[in-house]
Write a structure and sequence with these properties.
formyl-coa transferase, domain 3, 2 domains, three-stranded antiparallel β-sheet, 36% helix, CoA-transferase_III_domain, CoA-Trfase_fam_III, transferase, CoA-transferase activity
Length: 408
């Protein structure tokens, strides 16, 4: 087989900004036909986030910004005003042709348009209906709005991220990217694929999938949250230090910095050999995992002093030859120039209506028998409206009337 694994599955994407669109983008990578429904006139809210913008062939800014490019590759765009009855009917007709609907409206908001789960499930019982919200469909906070940064704070993520207490700049810190949205989007993909399997293989009906950013953020705390549940003591911020094997942190060098992790005693011994200090592997304060954890600060201080004696390139070469997990601290120019990254194809160049060569982040999924879909540029606002309405049986005069009245 050479077709993508979910070829033949159709997705109706009513979501905006990041978590929902991220999920739908991964489904497009897996071969789904994804129809993105956007607000007539302005499109997805994320289209207003910018700069930077895509450059045209002459180097001038266009209307297409970085945020939209990051989470909408491979989709089709249909513009509809769902506040108008005709707009609601268009979406319902489309829903009848789709396997999955993805939405991230506030709880209950789609009911007034007849596009909520209960309404559509009665008419299309096989439709998998994926709802992505801040706090979920149930619970005392279900009606609250929310963004990624709120959930980074409420989940405990910020409490364990940042410089350690007592050091300059200490305090809770937000992770740079909107990581809660991204993980929630991936959770949504897992839920969608599972629901399709349950429907198509086990004979289950379509169902509603209730994905919450808050739930996602708490679950993603993983072993950090388990420390608290197991001991009653909350973990604390360690800066760049890991929470497992020691040493595991960033060290400054003569001309930069590097990250290394010696996750067990064998790796710690190799570390000592690699940096020319084999006797430190037998030091009574650092000879096993327990002593290294108990004396973490002293070990870190000694290693930091040692790494300052030479360059990043020198140490990374020595650590790689010694089999010690380590790597540089890259900026994005260095990320996309890295030969391994290039070989893995994580940057792709696609043809865009405004520019024949636009660079995008590629899919990280690698499948030997059913490869992911060839990447395509994110759509312009309403780029596929006419074609999709033609498919649904709306004639040219009706579409002209819809445009005049702002339905599409």
């Amino acid at each position: 087989m050479t077709t993508p694994p979910l070829d033949g599955i159709r997705i109706l994407d009513l979501s905006r900004v990041l978590a929902g669109p991220w999920a739908a983008q991964y489904l497009a990578d897996l071969g789904c036909e994804v129809i993105k429904v956007e607000r007539a006139g302005t499109g997805d809210d994320a289209r207003a986030y910018g700069p930077p913008y895509v450059k045209d062939a002459d180097g001038n800014d266009t209307s297409e910004n970085f945020f939209h490019l990051s989470c909408n590759r491979g989709k089709k765009s249909l513009t509809v005003d769902i506040a108008q009855p005709e707009g609601q009917q268009i979406v319902k007709r489309l829903a009848g042709t789709c396997d999955v609907l993805v939405e991230n409206f506030k709880v209950g908001n789609l009911a007034k348009y007849g596009l909520d789960y209960d309404s559509l499930h009665k008419e299309f019982p096989r439709l998998v209906y994926c709802s992505v919200t801040g706090f979920g469909q149930t619970g005392p906070y279900r009606l609250r709005p929310g963004y990624d940064a709120i959930f980074q704070g409420m989940s405990g993520l910020m409490s364990v991220t940042g410089i350690a207490e007592g050091e300059p700049g200490a305090g809770p810190m937000k992770v740079g990217p909107s990581i809660t949205d991204i993980i929630c989007g991936l959770n949504a993909v897992i839920a969608v694929v599972s629901a399709l399997y349950a429907r198509d293989v086990k004979g289950a009906p379509g169902q509603q999938l209730d994905l919450a950013l808050f739930d996602t953020a708490v679950a993603a705390m993983s072993h950090y949250a388990q420390i608290y549940l197991s001991s009653g003591v909350a973990p604390f911020r360690r800066g760049t230090q890991g929470n497992g094997g020691v040493p595991s942190q960033m060290f400054y060098t003569k001309d930069g910095a590097l990250m290394l992790t010696a996750g067990n005693s064998a790796q710690y011994c190799r570390l000592c050999e690699a940096i020319g200090r084999p006797e430190m592997a037998r030091h009574p304060l650092y000879e096993d995992a327990r002593t290294r954890i108990a004396n973490r600060s002293g070990l870190s201080a000694w290693l930091q002093e040692h790494f300052l004696t030479d360059t990043t390139a020198h140490w990374l070469d020595a650590l790689e030859k010694g089999g010690v997990p380590s790597g540089p601290i890259y900026d994005f120019e260095e990320v996309f120039a890295d030969p391994h990254m290039v070989s893995r194809g994580l940057k792709v160049t696609v043809e865009h209506p405004f520019n024949p060569a636009v660079d995008l982040i590629g899919s990280p999924l690698r499948m030997s028998e059913t490869p992911v879909a060839t990447p395509k540029a994110p759509p312009l606002v309403g780029e596929h409206t006419t074609a999709l309405l033609d498919e649904l049986g709306y004639d040219a005069l009706t579409q002209q009337d819809f445009r005049a009245r702002g339905v599409i």
